[in-house]
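Sequence, please.
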C-alpha cells in the first residue's frame, strides 16, 4: 500500500503540461520525478514477483484465498516463474551423471563392437572424460573445473607430469594399430594420446599440447617436443614460453588454444587432417566429451551433407550432450569401463603403458646449455632412478602444480583485478 501511494505521489509530481513539452522538454525536477516513478514501478514489480514466487512454493492446499486471488491477478508472472523453474530443473537433469546398469551397458557395448567391426572409416573424438582416470579433472562433471568455479569453490589438481595414458588411451592406440580406428580428434591438451603411442599423423589435438612449443618465424613452423609442461609462463593471448628457436633465435610459443581464442597453428592442431577425416568418416565415436565445444565446429559434423549421408554417431558419456538426439547409440558409462568391455568383445588385448617406452622421450628436443633454468616444472622421467634424482634436486612444495593451459584457463567468466 505504501509503495502504491508513493508511486501515485511520484506520478503526480512527474506530470508534464503540453506547454512545458512545447517549450523545450522536461525540466530537471520533472526528469528526476519521472526517474523516481520508473524506479518505484520496478520495485513494485520485483516485490510482486517475490510474493508470487513465495506462494508458488506452497502446496495448493496450503494457499489462502487472498493468495489465490493474487495468483489469478498475476497470470503472466506465474507463467514466467513456472518457465524459469522448468528450465532450472532441465539444466540440473542435464548435469546429472547417469549410469546404465551392467547388463544394459554390456548389450550396448555389443552393438558398439558391431559398429566398430563394420565401419569403413571410424574417427574417434575425445574429451576430458578420458583423462579423469589419470587424475586430470574434466570441465563439466560434478567435480569439473567449470562446475566448481560456478559454485565458488577452488580448483586444484595433482602435478600433471604425474599423469599417464589411461586404459582408454591405450585401447584407442591398439584400435588404430589394428586399423579399426583411422583418426583421433582430441580436445585435450594433456599430451596423453601422443604418449600412448598413437602416431602424430593420426592425431588432431585441436586445443594444443602442453609438451609442444613452436617457432612461428620458421617456415614451416619448427616444433620442439619437451619432457616438461611448456605452458608455465603462458596464458590467454600470452603464449611466449621464454625460450628461443635453436635455428633462428625467434621466441618460441606454446600451442594451447584457450577459450575465446582461434587456433591457427598447423601442428599439433592438425585441423586439415581432422576435417578430411570427418568428411571421409562413416562412423564417429565420441568418448568423454560434453560436445558443447565440438558442436560449434560444423566441419567435424558434415553439416553440408544431407542427414542420410552423415556419419553414424556413437556417444560414451555419463551426462547429457547436445548431440544425443543425433546419436545412433548413447552409452552411459565411464570411458575406461566401456573400452574394457569393447576390447574384450573385439578380442583385442589392451597394451600396458610403459614409461620406459613412452614415445615422448624419442621425440623430445633437449634444452640447450643455459636453458636449464627456463622452467621450474618437473620433467618426465623414464625410470624410478631418474625420478628420485629429479625429486632430490627439486624444491619441496605442497601447492598443486597447474599448467598455464589448465590453471590460467580456469579464469573463464571472471574479471581480472586492475593492478594499480
Amino acid at each position: 500500500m505504501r509503495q502504491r501511494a508513493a508511486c501515485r505521489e511520484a506520478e503526480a509530481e512527474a506530470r508534464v503540461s503540453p506547454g512545458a513539452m512545447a517549450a523545450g522538454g522536461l525540466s530537471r525536477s520533472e526528469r528526476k520525478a519521472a526517474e523516481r516513478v520508473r524506479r518505484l514501478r520496478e520495485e513494485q514489480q520485483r516485490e510482486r514477483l517475490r510474493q508470487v514466487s513465495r506462494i508458488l512454493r506452497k502446496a495448493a492446499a496450503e494457499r489462502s484465498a487472498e493468495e489465490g486471488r493474487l495468483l489469478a491477478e498475476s497470470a503472466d508472472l506465474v507463467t514466467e516463474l513456472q518457465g524459469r523453474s522448468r528450465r532450472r530443473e532441465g539444466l540440473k537433469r542435464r548435469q546429472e551423471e547417469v549410469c546404465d546398469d551392467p547388463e544394459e551397458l554390456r548389450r550396448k557395448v555389443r552393438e558398439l563392437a558391431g559398429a566398430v567391426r563394420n565401419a569403413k572409416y571410424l574417427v574417434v573424438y575425445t574429451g576430458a572424460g578420458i583423462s579423469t582416470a589419470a587424475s586430470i579433472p574434466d570441465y563439466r562433471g560434478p567435480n569439473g573445473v567449470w562446475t566448481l568455479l560456478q559454485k565458488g569453490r577452488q580448483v586444484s589438481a595433482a602435478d600433471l607430469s604425474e599423469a599417464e595414458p589411461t586404459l582408454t588411451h591405450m585401447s584407442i592406440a591398439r584400435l588404430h594399430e589394428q586399423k579399426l580406428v583411422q583418426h583421433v580428434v582430441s580436445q585435450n591438451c594433456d599430451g596423453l594420446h601422443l604418449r600412448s603411442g598413437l602416431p602424430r599423423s593420426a592425431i588432431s589435438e585441436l586445443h594444443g599440447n602442453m609438451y609442444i612449443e613452436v617457432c612461428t618465424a620458421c617456415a614451416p613452423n619448427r616444433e620442439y617436443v619437451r619432457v616438461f609442461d611448456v605452458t608455465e609462463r603462458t596464458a590467454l593471448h600470452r603464449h611466449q614460453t621464454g625460450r628461443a628457436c635453436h635455428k633462428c633465435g625467434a621466441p618460441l610459443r606454446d600451442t594451447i588454444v584457450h577459450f575465446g581464442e582461434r587456433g591457427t597453428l598447423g601442428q599439433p592442431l592438425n585441423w586439415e587432417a581432422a576435417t578430411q577425416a570427418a568428411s571421409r568418416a562413416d562412423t564417429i565415436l565420441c568418448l568423454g566429451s560434453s560436445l558443447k565445444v565440438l558442436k560449434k565446429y560444423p566441419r567435424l559434423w558434415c553439416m553440408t551433407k544431407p542427414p542420410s549421408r552423415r556419419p553414424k554417431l556413437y556417444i560414451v558419456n555419463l551426462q547429457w550432450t547436445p548431440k544425443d538426439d543425433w546419436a545412433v547409440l548413447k552409452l552411459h558409462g565411464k570411458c575406461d569401463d566401456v573400452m574394457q568391455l569393447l576390447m574384450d568383445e573385439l578380442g583385442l588385448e589392451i597394451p600396458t603403458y610403459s614409461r620406459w617406452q613412452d614415445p615422448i622421450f624419442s621425440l623430445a628436443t633437449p634444452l640447450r646449455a643455459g636453458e636449464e633454468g627456463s622452467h621450474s616444472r618437473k620433467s618426465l622421467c623414464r625410470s624410478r632412478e631418474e625420478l628420485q634424482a629429479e625429486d632430490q634436486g627439486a624444491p619441496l612444495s605442497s601447492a598443486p602444480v597447474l599448467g598455464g593451459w589448465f590453471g590460467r584457463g580456469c579464469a573463464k567468466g571472471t574479471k581480472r583485478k586492475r593492478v594499480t
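Strands lie at 122-126, 183-186, 203-205, 212-215, 222-225, 240-244, 251-254, 283-287, 312-316, 329-331.
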